[in-house]
Amino acid sequence: MKLHNNTIRGVHTALESIFQEGQYADKVIERTLKSNPKWGARDRSFIAETTYEMVRWWRLINYLSPSESYWDLFGTYWLMQGNELPPWEEFSGLNPDKIKAKYESLDKPAILESIPDWLYEFGKKELGEKWDQEIHSLNEEAEVVLRVNTLKITREQLKNRLAEDGIRTYIVKGYPDALILEQRQNVFRNPAFKEGLFEVQDASSQLVAQALAVEPGMRVIDACAGAGGKSLHLAALMQNKGKVLSMDVEEWKLQQTKLRARRDGVSIIERKVIEGSKTIKRLKESADRLLLDVPCSGLGVLRRNPDTKWKLSLDSIAKVQETQQEIIQSYSSMLKKGGQMVYATCSILPSENQKQVEKFLASEAGKDFELIEDQKVLAQESGFDGFYIARLLKK
Questions:
Q1: Active site residue 346
Q2: pTM score, whole prediction
């Protein structure tokens, strides 16, 4: 592929925002592309993918690069991809043979997998012998997965509809509402998306709503709803009959839920901002089903959010674990007796997952609950994001 000075500078600008200003990669890329409407589809794809991949391999690139200049860092990354550099003056300080030799002599797994030393040690402690393969899997580029909106179309119909537009997809057993794109592309511009025929949602994430075993007519609370992806899935599984109460502490996130529900033809979602413990108390024992998709470290979704590994710390993980336990202790009171609750994270760490459930079950608030089943979804085994899903019954 031919390199262009202006698109490389676009990547440089994005990386500066991410690493020097601590901004989130997805927002930076979105803003960078919006600010340059003259870039064509190929240029936009190059900037987005290159930025994400350089963020993913940032530590390794810095280790192999002869300097911290952005031209040397980009040139090192470009050579790592098996490409040749053009004879530009900006790349004159790079020696491909030296970079290759340095890479081949590297024997530190934390640098090879491009993660901080503390995270490598922490992951090893949590996952043991599975950690090395898991972090390797989490460094692979994520596939684009669609969730079919079964309120409007069947999976087979959507598959055929997209094929007519040149978007080829395939089905994976065990994920009844999922279609996986054969080739990465921007599906948000497709008319089928605008008609609300699908959402973009990883296959592992789709397992969460399914685990709740909802039925039409139920009253369901999605208590950490965010932008509403799982609320929308629950509504579809309920055939748009009953009620889904989408709750979050951030009102702006729930605003996204409203827009998405309108597009998807969902009418049973009601939004509610959590303003404190009173909001939870007023809903005591009101839900047939309760979903707690709690805040987490996000280690299971590193393939989608590679900048997470540069923002995390042992302190931030400890703080999010406190929040997780506070949520399950407090929010579980909203479930009726005989109802079912799902506790879920997009983390692969036992300390955020099964250990949190065990702690809850051993507490006063959890004494009336029992664990029905749990799923520990690893990227190396599923090929999708890492997740944890526990289903509990309130006796």
A1: yes
A2: 0.94
